Amino acid sequence: MNSNIVLPGFEEVIINKTEVIEGTLCLYVEMPVSKHTCPNCGKHTMKVHDYRIQKIKHLKMFERNTLIFYRKRRYTCLCGKRFPENNPFINRYQRLSTEYNQAITIRSIKGKTFKETAEIYGTSASTIVRRFDKVAEDTVQEEPNALPKVIAIDEYKGDTKKGKYQLIIADGVTREPIDILPNRYKKTISHYLRKYGTNVEVVVMDMSPSFKAAVRQALGKPIIVADRFHFVRYIYCIGWG
Ligand SMILES: [Zn+2]
Asked: What is the pTM of this model?
């Protein structure tokens, strides 16, 4: 049966069947047969070699955990090469859909706790922690430029191999994460701000008084330290950002 349903991200996909099994939405999908270029000889082929069903974890749809059962096709070429077809929802050697991957990468940083993020995405906290570690690694390896005038410092609670808390340094106006520090020790933030904080004038944070004092001291000049609530009112008043 060819369905008329079009789901976001599945525009070119044939959805053969959908059903709910024990609360989980299952989508049975395949790609239309199409001309593929052989990765070995560069010639075109449409000759199907075989199929196998691949189970893929996807983003929740209609508030339900969602699995894709992808009837994955392999093509064969006259030169003898066999290769999998192109598809829009999963990369090679993955078990998670591309969209799911992107979502948990972002939410591993922006979510409230690893546990809550895991519940929302129907996965384990350790999966989210591993993702967070990966992002932290990629981010921290990059040498940041000088920090902007307004920064926000947030602590992030969770159990990673790097310690129970991390600090997220974000642009205070756009909220874009700039950096992730592996712990919330005062010496870590002090060292970091001495190195990159020359331009900082406003720090938005809801942290302990002693932590705030450490931040002021590290920057070594008069700065405004604002808590989130007051800062949000402030930028609305002056129309900043
Ligand atoms: Zn070929």
From this structure: 0.53
